[in-house]
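Priority: medium. Attachment 1 of 2:
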């Protein structure tokens, strides 16, 4: 079995963002030369997420509104976590809802997606560098 392990580094200009990383992951699948296997994409920070969905701006706006309704950033004092000196309790909760990682099948050295599927990095406490693990295994 062959493997490839790489790390992407992202640093969003905003506190919250959705970044399409599909092309970067596809480039790593090509680099791996793995014809049949699996690709794990994993957020390495507890205030960031990896998920698969449609690359449609209206949907991303809906996510933003929905997540903010579930776990609003302010007032900061509503969260016990923020009493430790942090201000990102909402980001932890948003990450929990959106998920930590995705696994995508590799078929003929390509990500085997359904229609409209793309891989996204969800940032909920930005303005600093964060890593995403991409691990590819197969033959």
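Attachment 2 of 2:
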């Amino acid at each position: 079995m062959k493997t490839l392990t790489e790390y992407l580094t992202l640093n969003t200009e905003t506190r919250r963002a959705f970044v399409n990383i599909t092309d970067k992951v596809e480039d790593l699948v090509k680099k791996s030369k793995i014809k049949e296997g699996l690709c794990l994409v994993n957020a390495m920070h507890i205030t960031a997420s990896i998920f698969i969905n449609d690359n449609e701006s209206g949907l991303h706006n809906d996510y933003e509104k929905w997540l903010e309704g579930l776990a609003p950033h302010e007032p900061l004092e509503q969260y016990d976590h923020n009493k430790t000196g942090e201000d990102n309790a909402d980001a932890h909760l948003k990450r929990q809802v959106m998920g930590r990682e995705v696994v995508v099948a590799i078929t003929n050295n390509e990500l085997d997606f359904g229609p409209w599927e793309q891989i996204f990095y969800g940032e909920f406490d930005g303005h600093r560098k964060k890593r995403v693990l991409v691990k590819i295994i197969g033959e």
